[in-house]
Amino acid sequence: MEVKLKNLMESLVLMKLDEVIDKLDCCKCDKCRMDIASYALNRLPPKYVATVEGEVYTKFDTLSMQYETDMLNALFQGAKAVAKKPHHDINKNI
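^ thats the sequence. predicted structure below, dont judge the formating
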């Protein structure tokens, strides 16, 4: 069996972004979505796992209200930053 490192925070942030994207006041194109996720991930602690057991434990650990709050805050701040300066012309057809 191949052992690979995985930053579980990445999948958690992308999943949470999918849940809240309609509430964010910004462009929802793929480029902006990835910019928002990148912003959030650069401000949240990484959660690397190498085993299934580690993934389960880390997912359980991230169910706390503080993790949820930190993740949502980073996503909303990211959306605000991206909306102010998107990496594309918002008037063009994306």
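The chain has one domain: 13-84.
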